[in-house]
Q: What sequence folds into this?
């Protein structure tokens, strides 16, 4: 032990006494408040817009994430995609004497109705397609975007196209105008030539695609409900395969319909991400919102059959983590 | 032939009328299409409102027409202009209610009902139907029990799954027919209030603009045309006063430049012409001068020739006179002696023949002496010894020395108060005697002898006129030549001597004669001696 001078010895004694005081205070706090801390289990209600596998995966992930975190999932309500019925269900939840500590809304219908009815408890929404279209911001609202950022999408696209620059996109300015204006800036930065075509109805998709098909090197499909419909998907899929063009999107379902690549969130991991957020919000009642964040984990879905038809080598993509190959 | 202005006005007016009619047609079609679109939107919103009304769904579920009163009323309140012609609501089994406006004549059973409403994929339809002469815009929509939230359907599609669809049970069917009568009224109103006035405005406005433009464009051209005409008539001082900066202005500037150049060229031509005229005048004057000089030269030459002739003749006469005068004088004297002796011996009285011969000798000798004297006189023409002389007395003296035949009528006119003229009275008297004798000789059968004396400027003119045979043109220029005569017994010295005398007095002798009518000699003598 090194030699200490008198002053140093006094400081050491003071610190020792101080530690004892802090420890004693903590012991008292634990003794007095431990029943409240350990005994209370937070109650969460999950509301899902409808019964689809993607929503169920997210809910499953959320449940997994909540395990062992003193969080009890009281009920899972299915709104069956019916606005009127959903409204009645949400009103019933609100009228229940056991008010939930937090509501997880899965899907846009659930998120909208929950936001409308609950203003005093935290709400977490997820699996909302193109959430920027809907006014979901609020002091008690936390959300996880279901879209991958444009930067991330274009980074994959750049890897896919190489030297080719012309990227076509069809959009309804009423629904996805904001995404396109944001994409314009990113495309410029990444030296893409974004060829945009506006449409206002599903019927215009075929002619819009026909007009741009000879000018583009790839088609970028954004989640626009005017552009992506059951009928238009068939037309798009048929046209791009005829012209041997790659299609890039944010939906693995569209990849299954014929698109080449999609980058989309991992739904289970989105649930886990929501559970972590719920825990944070419940542990700190003073925090009512964590804002809207991007999904933590993404997955790349590749259609090998399409790649073969259009003659594109996707070997480099297969080395990416979380790659799903279809079929 | 139409003018440019008329053509332009006609063309532009026709064009304007055509455009006006086209515009009216376009606006009519556009207005009709807009009205139809508005009607379709109204029909769609009304039928959708009715189809989505929960009370309608209840009414269909329970087949209670009474439940439909309130929804129908709500829809009717939205139909501000009472365009709903009929309304039909039915469930899958039967028609629950059918209503039609009182002004609709057609029977409801004649309005076709949709038969495909069992197909849930068939959404709103609208069609134009005509029945019993009335036309309706028919809107039909199925009423479903439950509808999936569309954004959730899209999410399901995007997330890879067919959405969990609620059973879309079709409860029934809503059908609304809108009558176009108000639409037609609106179109009619639009035609009367907007389209026709607009067409009229376009036509009249167009014609007005055409007139203005025509005036604006054609007036300068007409102005230029009038100026061009003036210029063509020779008024090159005119110019076009158009100062616009357009093509017309450019044309007028060019035109003015052209006129200016033309005027300059015309002035130059006039100047050259004036100079030419002056030159021609000068040439003409010079020619006249030359002719005059030529005449003078000819005259001088004639005079010279005559002088030479005279000189030769004078020399000859002088020689011949000298040589013949003395023998002739001797012959005469001898004849006088013979005659005297013969008279004394009475030879002549006895022998008539000898007497006649003597007389012939005497006569011819006298005549020869006279000729010789004339020749000598001609050769010795002396310088005139002038003295103021009264011409009247000179004429009378000359006449008195001549034997005037009775068959000759004479007229003597001497101007009163004629001045005395400085002449050699003897020489001039001889000249007058020569001329009067010639006149008498020219009138062997009688005639008129006129002697006229008068003042002519600085000369005194004595004109001796006869009504004799006249002098042929061929000999006119020879009669003053010495030894030229037309008389059988003349020697041709009278006129030559006369001319010589007058010329020595610085006077002239003019001859005017016409064959068969007579001859007129005018002697001009200067009044004052130079």
A:
């Amino acid at each position: 032990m090194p030699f200490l001078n008198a002053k140093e010895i006094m400081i050491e004694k003071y610190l020792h006494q101080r530690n004892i005081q802090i420890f004693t205070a903590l012991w008292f706090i634990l003794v007095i408040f431990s029943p409240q801390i350990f005994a209370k289990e937070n109650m969460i209600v999950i509301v899902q817009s409808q019964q689809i596998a993607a929503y169920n995966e997210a809910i499953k992930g959320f449940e997994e994430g909540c395990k062992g975190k003193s969080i009890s999932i009281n009920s899972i309500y299915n709104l069956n995609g019916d606005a009127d019925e959903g409204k009645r269900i949400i009103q019933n939840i609100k009228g229940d004497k056991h008010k939930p500590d937090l509501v997880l809304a899965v899907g846009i219908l659930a998120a909208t109705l929950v936001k409308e009815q609950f203003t005093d408890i935290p709400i977490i929404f997820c699996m909302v397609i193109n959430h920027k279209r809907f006014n979901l911001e609020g002091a008690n609202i936390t959300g996880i975007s279901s879209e991958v950022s444009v930067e991330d999408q274009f980074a994959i696209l750049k890897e896919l196209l190489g030297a080719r620059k012309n990227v076509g996109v069809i959009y309804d300015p009423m629904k996805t105008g904001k995404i396109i204006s944001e994409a314009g800036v990113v495309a410029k930065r990444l030296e893409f030539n974004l060829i945009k075509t506006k449409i206002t109805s599903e019927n215009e998709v075929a002619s819009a695609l026909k007009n741009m098909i000879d000018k583009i090197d790839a088609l970028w499909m954004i989640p626009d409900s005017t552009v992506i419909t059951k009928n238009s998907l068939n037309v798009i899929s048929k046209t791009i395969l005829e012209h041997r063009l790659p299609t890039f999107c944010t939906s693995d379902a569209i990849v299954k319909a014929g698109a080449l690549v999609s980058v989309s969130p991992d739904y289970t991991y989105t649930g886990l991400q929501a559970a972590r957020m719920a825990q944070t919000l419940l542990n700190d009642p003073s925090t009512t919102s964590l804002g809207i964040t991007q999904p933590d984990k993404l997955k790349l879905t590749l259609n090998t059959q399409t790649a073969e038809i259009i003659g594109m080598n996707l070997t480099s993509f297969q080395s990416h983590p979380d790659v799903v190959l279809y079929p | 032939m139409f003018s440019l202005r008329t053509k332009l006005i006609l063309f532009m007016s026709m064009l304007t009328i055509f455009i006006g009619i086209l515009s009216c047609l376009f606006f009519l079609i556009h207005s009709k299409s807009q009205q139809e679109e508005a009607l379709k939107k109204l029909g769609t919103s009304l039928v959708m409102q009715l189809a989505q009304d929960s009370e309608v769904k209840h009414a269909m579920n329970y087949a209670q027409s009474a439940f439909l009163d309130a929804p129908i009323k709500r829809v009717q309140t939205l139909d501000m202009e009472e365009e709903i012609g009929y309304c039909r609501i039915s469930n899958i089994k039967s028609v629950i209610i059918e209503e039609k406006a009182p002004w609709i004549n057609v029977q409801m059973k004649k309005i076709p009902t949709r038969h495909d409403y069992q197909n849930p994929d068939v959404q709103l339809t609208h069609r134009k139907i005509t029945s019993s002469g009335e036309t309706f815009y028919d809107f039909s929509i199925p009423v479903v029990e439950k509808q999936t939230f569309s954004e959730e359907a899209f999410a399901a599609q995007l997330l890879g799954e067919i959405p969990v669809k609620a059973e879309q049970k079709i409860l029934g069917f809503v059908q609304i027919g809108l009558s176009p009568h108000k639409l037609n009224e609106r179109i009619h109103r639009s035609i009367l209030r907007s389209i026709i006035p607009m067409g009229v405005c376009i036509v009249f406005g167009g014609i007005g603009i055409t007139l203005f433009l025509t005036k604006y464009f054609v007036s300068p051209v007409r102005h230029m045309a009038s100026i061009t005409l003036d210029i063509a008539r020779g008024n090159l001082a005119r110019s076009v006063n158009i100062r616009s900066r357009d093509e017309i202005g450019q044309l007028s500037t060019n035109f003015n430049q052209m006129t200016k150049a033309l005027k300059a060229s015309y002035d130059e031509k006039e100047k050259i012409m004036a100079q030419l005229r002056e030159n021609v005048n000068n040439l003409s004057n010079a020619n006249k001068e030359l002719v005059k000089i030529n005449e003078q030269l000819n005259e001088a030459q004639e005079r010279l020739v005559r002088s030479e002739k005279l000189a030769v003749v004078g020399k000859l006469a002088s020689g011949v006179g000298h040589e013949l005068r003395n023998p002739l004088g001797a012959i005469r004297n001898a004849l006088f002696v013979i005659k005297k002796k013969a008279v004394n011996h009475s030879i002549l009285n006895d022998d008539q023949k000898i007497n006649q011969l003597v007389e012939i000798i005497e006569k011819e000798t006298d005549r020869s002496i006279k000729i010789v004297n004339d020749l000598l006189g001609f050769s010795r023409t002396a310088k005139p010894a002038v003295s103021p002389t009264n011409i009247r007395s000179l004429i009378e003296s000359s006449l008195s020395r001549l034997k005037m035949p009775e068959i000759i009528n004479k007229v003597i006119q001497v101007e009163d108060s004629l001045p005395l003229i400085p002449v050699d009275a003897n020489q001039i008297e001889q000249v007058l005697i020569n001329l009067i004798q010639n006149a008498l000789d020219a009138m062997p059968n009688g005639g008129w002898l006129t002697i006229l004396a008068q003042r002519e400027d600085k000369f005194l003119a004595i004109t001796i006129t006869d009504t004799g045979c006249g002098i042929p043109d061929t000999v006119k220029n020879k009669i003053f030549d010495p030894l030229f005569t037309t008389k059988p017994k003349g020697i041709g010295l009278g006129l030559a001597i006369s001319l010589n005398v007058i010329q020595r007095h610085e006077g002239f002798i003019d001859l005017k004669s016409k064959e068969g009518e007579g001859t007129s000699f005018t002697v001009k003598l200067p009044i004052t001696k130079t």
